Amino acid sequence: VAEGEPGEGREPFELPRFWDALGQTFQVTSQEATKLSLAFSRPPLPSAEDCRKLCEDVQNAILAVATVYYWLPKGQGTTLRKMVRDATTEVVEGMIQLTDTILSAPAESLSQEQLISTGGVWDACEQVSNLPRDNQAAVVSALTACLGVVKDAVEEMEHALVEGQDPYGDIMEDEELGFRGNRDTYWSEADRQLLSSCMGLMKASKACLKKGLGAVKTHGKADSPEHIAQLDDIADIANEISPSVDELALSMYPPVNPLAVRLNAAKLASVLKKVLEIAKTSHVCPPSEEGWVQFLNGAVDHNMNKIKNFTQGQL
């Protein structure tokens, strides 16, 4: 499940039929986990014949889950497929863990681990009802997750940059460390000027994701191979924003190396320009959406130019 590729089926693929079948297989697996756990919850233990039957039922349920997952062709969207694959993998891993727990636990009583493992399979099986139903919904979900992470990073950096605040105050309050009036723990005035443009770039990242998410929600369609592929392209490049924001944020803590900051800012700016270009040329950006694309392109250039000016003397 984790590494295999789907077979492109001969029959025409029907998304509603796929979801019905996947929901049923997840439900059956949840029931089999309950039966297996109950059988080993108190003496007497099941007979060899009963064990064989239980194992067969569990194995068949898991094979059915994997088989239905394999029905979903790549053409329905790689973002959707990855989310379904992750959910399927979790069910399979949950059942493996439950079986291991039963094999390693003393037979006399229902252990806490066994209860937790059984609940784990139930939770994994219930996830099917929360999965996005097509690639547009999957990309909305992926962009929402990215936006949440970037928002947190921006807020954390804003908090650290509050005038006069010691960025290491929370971890270096011990008086025995002595006086810390050095470049290793404080930002100079020049640092703060450079970092304000970096914050501008981080805020542009948040705005890119927010506006992109709105465009995908409003105009995104999963009704043709071309539209589905365009949505995947947007999700793939948007996934690069959060790690790039994190790298820039880490390089902004003192002692500041202006060249490292410039390098990380340039990486983030490059990702943002790609996001805007891919969005602009896709179906999610009709003429009504072009204004924000243009505005954010300008914002990225403006902040990057300021960062270059501040660091020019370091080259």
UniProtKB/TrEMBL annotation:
Compartment list: Cytoplasm; Nucleus
Alphabetical keyword list: Cell cycle, Cytoplasm, Nucleus
GO CC annotations on file: cytoplasm; nucleus
InterPro entries from the UniProt entry: GCIP-like (IPR026907), GCIP-like_N (IPR049317), GCIP_C (IPR049318)
Domain Cyclin-D1-binding protein 1-like N-terminal: 22-161
Primary localization: cytoplasm
Pfam families, alphabetized: GCIP_C (PF20936), GCIP_N (PF13324)
Domain Cyclin-D1-binding protein 1-like C-terminal positions: 173-277
Family: Belongs to the CCNDBP1 family.
The protein's name: CCDB1 protein
Organism: Pitta sordida (Hooded pitta)
Gene it is expressed from: Ccndbp1
